Amino acid sequence: MKEAESEVEFAAAILIGSENYGRTCINGLPLTPSSIRLLGRFQKLLSLNHKNICQYIELIRSQNSANAVFVVSEHYSKVLSWKELENTLIIPIITQLIDCLRYLHSQDIIIGHLSTDNILITPSKKFGLTVKLCQYGLNYITGNGEDVNYLIADAYYLSPERIIKMIPGVWKGPASKKSDVWALGIILVEFFIKMSLKNLWSLQQYTSILHTFCQKSQKKTCSFFNYLMQAIKIAKPTLSVDIDEKIISIIEKCLQLLPSVRPRLDDIYNEIEIVNNNHYFDQEEEEFSNHMKEVNAILNLQNLEGVKVYRPLTELFFLWKLCGSNIEAILKPGEQKFARVIIDDYKLCGKNLETFVKTPFNLIILPSSNLKTRLKKLECEDTHNLNSDQVETPSKFVEYIGQTLIVKERNIEYQSYRMALMRDLLLTYPYTLEMLKTECKKDIPPVYRGALWAALLDVHDDVNIDFDQLDTFPEQASDRQLMVDIPRCHQYEELMTSPAAHIQLKKLLKAWLLANPNYVYWQGLDSLAAPFLVHHFNNLPKAFGCLQNFIQRYLQNFFLKDNSHIIQEYLAVFTQLLAFIDSKLYFHLNEMDFCAELFAIPWFLTCFAHVLPLHKLFHLWDTLLLTDSSFTLFIGIAILVQMRQQLLNSQFNDAILLFSDLPDLSIDKIVADSLCYYHSVPPSCSHRIYSSEHLRDNATPLMNISLNELRTFHCPRISPTDLINLIDHNRVLLLDIRSTTEFNMFSLPNSINIAQNCYDFNSSSFYSIIKSQLSVARDHKKDIIMSLMNRRSKKIPNLRKMSVSRTISVANNELDYSQLEVNSCPNSPAVKKVFRLVIVGSARTGKTAIVNRFLEEQFEERYLPTIENFHRKVYKRGGEVYQMDIVDCSGMDPFPAARKLSYATGDMFIIVSSVDHPESLNHMLDLHDQIIECKLGKGLPIQNIPMIYVLNKTDLPRVKWQHNEAEFANKIIQFTGSQNKHILCSAKLNENMDVLFVNLFQQARLPKFMCPGAHRALRTKHSADEYEESSSSRGHLLRRMREKFSRESEDECYTQLNARRSSLRTDLLLTRAKSMERRNKTNGNKIGHKISIKYTNRNEEQYVVEAVTGVESHSKKCVIM
Question: Which of 87, 192, 673, 786 is the most exposed place for a label (fewest CB within 10 A)?
Answer without folding.
Answer: 87
